[in-house]
Write a structure and sequence with these properties.
This protein is α/β, with parallel strands linked by helices. The chain has 6 helices and 7 strands; from the N terminus they run E-H-E-E-E-H-E-E-H-E-H-H-H. Helix 5 runs antiparallel to helix 6. 42% of the residues are buried. Belongs to the PTH family.
Length: 194
């Protein structure tokens, strides 16, 4: 189906990880579902999905959250892509990005995984790097904290105040990427905030 998009929020399963930095991709997909009044249901590809539309009569959106841990997200993503007949170019992966400051979003299509194990596994399972990424900035830890520990912690108090805005902006970026294309979405979301 040429006008179907698979939008995957990466993260880890279970309440322990739900509101951690590593799960910001799933929080963005939750925002997209909430905007449409939809709830996730189990899918045989070991994921939870919502089937909806960008707008009535527009592109079909399959919003997905793998039930696997971040580093083995590829199997569910590839299974969903096969099930819905979606080419890698119509897959959007939403994920946390430690090398982007908190409250910033960057979009790209193709390219490397940048050390992100979830993105690496998706690329391997799809046998392609042609999918788009909405990279949601979580920033780096201060001091000597290990990045691996940092991403598994809940957002700090000041971050939590701004988190709804960040999630809304990232959801807007996904919608614009589907509706208007990568360049238009980049031009809007890569600009400095005023």
């Amino acid at each position: 189906m040429a006008d179907t998009w698979l939008i995957v929020g990466l993260g880890n399963p279970g309440p322990r990880y739900e509101l951690t930095r590593h799960n910001v991709g799933q929080l963005v997909v939750d925002e997209l579902a909430a905007r449409r009044g939809e709830t996730f249901r189990a899918h045989k590809a070991n994921a939870r999905v919502v089937e909806t539309w960008l707008q009535p009569g527009g592109a079909k959106l399959v919003l997905a959250k793998p039930n696997t841990f971040m580093n083995v997200s590829g199997g569910p993503v590839a299974g969903l892509a096969r099930f819905y007949g979606v080419d890698p170019e119509r897959v959007i992966v939403v994920h946390d990005e430690i090398d982007i400051p908190f409250d910033a979003i960057k979009l790209k299509a193709g390219g490397g995984h940048g050390g992100h194990n979830g993105v690496r596994d998706v690329a391997k399972a799809l046998d392609s790097t042609a999918f788009s990424r909405v990279r949601v900035g979580i920033g780096r830890p201060t001091g000597r904290q290990e990045p691996a520990d940092w991403v598994l912690e809940p957002f700090g108090a000041s971050e939590r105040k701004n988190l709804p805005i960040l999630l809304a902006d990232a959801a807007d970026a996904v919608e614009q990427l589907v509706g208007e294309g990568l360049l238009a979405a980049q031009q809007k979301h890569h600009a400095p905030r005023v």
